[in-house]
Write a structure and sequence with these properties.
Elements (H helix, E strand, L loop, with lengths): L2 E5 L2 E3 L5 E8 L7 E7 L6 E7 L5 E3 L7 E6 L4 E6 L8 E8 L14 E2 L3 E5 L1
Parallel strand pairs: 2-11
Antiparallel strand pairs: 1-3, 3-8, 4-5, 4-9, 5-6, 7-8, 9-10, 9-11
């Protein structure tokens, strides 16, 4: 079983930066897709960014392109999300997820076998 533990959330002013981390405990397959999701109060969970385990391809929601960068350190078994130019609308609980998608859309949260408990990001 894999456990995912997020950290790095906090409160920042608009225009600021944060880096989220997601540490994985347990065996993780090299073909997992790793993703960040977020959910604001009263809204559905949405895909923010993802990185494929095979070729390292990255994917982003249009709303964060050019501002957020997803990366993964395989040696540390840790996923990152560098967030720059933060806006008030980025305020949400951020979750990481991992799993084999087998061609499914990376933006579908229920397709991931493993999910973390989340870290709060507040931008004012």
């Amino acid at each position: 079983e894999v456990q995912l533990v997020e950290s790095g959330g906090g409160s920042v002013q608009a225009g600021g930066s944060l880096r989220l981390s997601c540490a994985a405990e347990g065996y993780t397959s090299g073909d997992y897709c790793w993703a960040w999701f977020r959910q604001a109060p009263g809204k559905e969970r949405e895909g923010v960014a993802a990185i494929a385990g095979g070729d390292g391809s990255t994917y982003y929601a249009d709303s964060v392109k050019g501002r957020f960068t997803v990366s993964r350190d395989n040696a540390k078994n840790t996923l990152y999300l560098q967030m720059n130019g933060l806006k008030a609308e980025d305020t949400a609980m951020y979750y990481c997820a991992a799993g084999r998608l087998r061609g499914k859309d990376w933006r579908l949260p229920h397709e991931y076998r493993y999910r973390g408990q989340g870290t709060q990001v507040t931008v004012s």
